[in-house]
Amino acid sequence: MNPEFRNPSIDPAGAGKRVKMLIVDDEAVICEGLRYTIDWTKLGVEVVGEAYDGKEALALIEEHGVQLVLSDIRMDGMDGLELAKQLRQRHPAVQVVMISGYEDFEYARQAIRLGVGDYLLKPVDIEELSAVVNKIVAGIRSADKEEKAREIELWLSGMARHGSAYGKEPPPSLDGVQFRIVATQLADFHERFADMEADRYETIQEAWLLGLNRNLEGGPLRAVSVFDHENLLITLLASAERAEPDAWDEWLASTLGSVDPGAGVRIYGGASAVYEDLGETAERCAEAVRLLALHVLDGRRILTADYGVAAMSGRALPGFDITETVQGLVSAFFKQDREEVRRTVEDLFRFCRESGYLLPEVWNLYEELFALLRQRLRKSGMTGLDYARRGQPDPNIFNSYAGLETVVLEDMEELQRLIDQNGIDKSYWIVEKAKRFIIDRYRTDLKASEVAAWLKITPSYFSYIFKQSTGKGFTEYMNEMRIDQAKNLLATTQDKVFEIADKVGYKEYKYFVSVFKTYTGMTPKEYRGLRVCKEASEGGGDMTAGMEPAKD
């Protein structure tokens, strides 16, 4: 991001202090002249002393933390060029102005190579020297202010990202008696900005930050802001005087509530409680970020910690019928009905919106649904349903119901693709499901149309896939199952034949006898008699084996 958009409203302590300067010349009279001829204080400079060669100058520079050196080039011992070389290696931030009585271009060229800020000739023009020093002082102060701002930003970023584990003390340049954290982000990020070109999005970020800082100008608050995420701006507000919470809220409403990056971009935020101990900053950052999730419940630009407490107090969410939704999705997947899948997902999100589910809660609900869905599909015979799903979507990117819904729809589309690609016989699992349904109800007068209705498919389609999978029509399959059960009951119980007929689903005795004879070649009584004879004999193989006619 362009440096001019960083934090112009912050004014770290120390930015207005005088710049420390050292005068270096091997002639004492020149040192004295330079020191007292110019009003250095007016230029924002404090002369900490004089040195008479480069070696002495280095010692004083390190002792006093000198920021600017005014030095002659030619001196006995370590001359000015060597001094500049040493400073470049050991103290590169120190600015140097060279003064020489010789109009020697080679000296000037060497001085420039060594990073000397300016080069003046003796006798020095006072106005020219003052102008040069004034420019350098401004640059030093700007760099100093920028360095302190970066120090504060780095600390704030560490607190926001790593919490109390960051462990660093707040910078001494961060002044204030009361503080507050505000977390802001752009609404509908995934839908509007996720695919935006980097340059265009950076322009929006700059307008976002610049708008915030402009609104703070002239007010009682100072701020430092860092982008903890491309769509999460953490702002530390500092006040030099204590104020009541209502006053803070008014400042927030007037300052942050009117930030407008343009182009219909909507910004919302969460504001922590006011605090006085900077050691609480990590906790307050987390508090402000948590409030962002509540914006699906309330359209206000800035939500406060008090609102968060009130909104979550005694909150109860209505339950959602996951089982029914999974059944609907399973049916839609088998029919390859992507439109029905989409409608089912829309119904899920409509329920969540109307019920006041927060986005993390929506995701937890969906994760439970997805796990059950995949389990049902596997039990139904589907294979190859494992794929590298993303974890919980980034809440700063998918910060709306619509954004989160796109993730769910992508999951559903991928499942459908895998089912189409890796599922075994497309009818296998639905027929298996039908078989389980039939086993539970074969004793009733069950019809194929009833099974099809339960499976939510047409009777003709059910009849087709059932025959393809089992090799038998529905009626034939039901008769075989019932006759097998009847044979078992005839052999193991003393129940009368008409009672057995009723137990296996035949309400008409004569029809049961007719079907039984068709499948076994004998009546039920004959079958029971043969079983009794068999058991009385040596206990050989099934005497009825081979007596049943071949099945179609």
From TrEMBL:
- Residues with the 4-aspartylphosphate modification: D72
Indicate yes or no for the key word Transcription regulation. Answer: yes
Q: Which domain of life is it from?
A: Bacteria
Q: Which Gene3D superfamilies match?
A: 3.40.50.2300, Homeodomain-like
**Cellular location(s):** Cytoplasm
User: Sorted alphabetically, which CDD domains does this protein's record hold?
Assistant: REC_YesN-like
Chief subcellular location equals cytoplasm
Entry GO MF terms: DNA-binding transcription factor activity; sequence-specific DNA binding
Whether Transmembrane helix counts among this entry's keywords is no
Q: Which UniProt keywords apply?
A: Cytoplasm, DNA-binding, Phosphoprotein, Transcription, Transcription regulation, Two-component regulatory system
Protein's GO biological process:
phosphorelay signal transduction system
Q: Which InterPro entries match?
A: CheY-like_superfamily, Homeodomain-like_sf, HptR, HTH_AraC, HTH_AraC-typ_CS, Sig_transdc_resp-reg_receiver, Tscrpt_reg_AraC-type_HTH
Q: Where is the HTH araC/xylS-type domain?
A: 432-530
Give the protein name, as stated in the record. Answer: Response regulator
